[in-house]
């Protein structure tokens, strides 16, 4: 496989967001809770801009975990979360069927908690032949050690680790791609820290050709 072919392409990908709910976010200690929300929102916005199918799943929303986090629901107004009982999305027929129905074999995954509801479907998807990309900075674990070990286990099983900004830049790849330029730039400016500040400055000084 050549270098270009190994890079993510929007038409080959689907995004799975798992258990972004307040009851689970309370337990996250591997990253600040605000950072996990901001990174997940940036990732979701990226999928919207590049027209990537999005599957959202939640669990125990009425008895413990609560609904999908409002900032995520706000950027995904047309996406209905699939409620399930067990920890593994892959073992829920409705959620699994929704992923299969995208007809995409490259699966981008983020969610809470890294040690369980992220790693379980990732390991299952890998076994089923999917190419899986875990967005490490949009996943939250109960501890830094638990988060790191879960990422390590997924990587050893064949998952590829990435970040939300790498996903966006890999999909955009060329700032002269006009159809996604404005949307991608806005996400980076809002969530990309110093790089976003620089991009905003450049936008005021020069314009894409």
Set down the secondary structure blueprint.
Blueprint: H1 3-6, E1 13-18, H2 22-25, H3 33-49, E2 54-59, H4 70-75, E3 82-84, H5 93-101, E4 106-112, H6 114-127, E5 131-140, H7 144-157, E6 160-162, H8 164-172, H9 178-191, H10 193-205
Parallel strand pairs: 1-2, 1-4, 2-3, 4-5, 5-6
Pfam family, one: Isochorismatase
Domain Isochorismatase-like: 13-165
Keywords: Hydrolase
Would you kindly provide a written description of the structure presented here, covering whatever features stand out?
InterPro entries: Hydrolase_YcaC-like, Isochorismatase-like_dom, Isochorismatase-like_sf. There is one protein chain. With 209 residues, this protein is of the alpha/beta class. The protein has a single domain, classed as 3-Layer(aba) Sandwich (Rossmann fold). The chain contains 10 helices and 6 strands, in the order H-E-H-H-E-H-E-H-E-H-E-H-E-H-H-H. The chain has a 6-stranded parallel sheet, sandwiched between helices. Strand 2 (54-59), helix 4 and strand 3 (82-84) form a beta-alpha-beta unit. Helix 3 (33-49) runs parallel beside helix 8, helix 6 (114-127) runs parallel beside helix 7 (144-157) and helix 9 crosses helix 10.
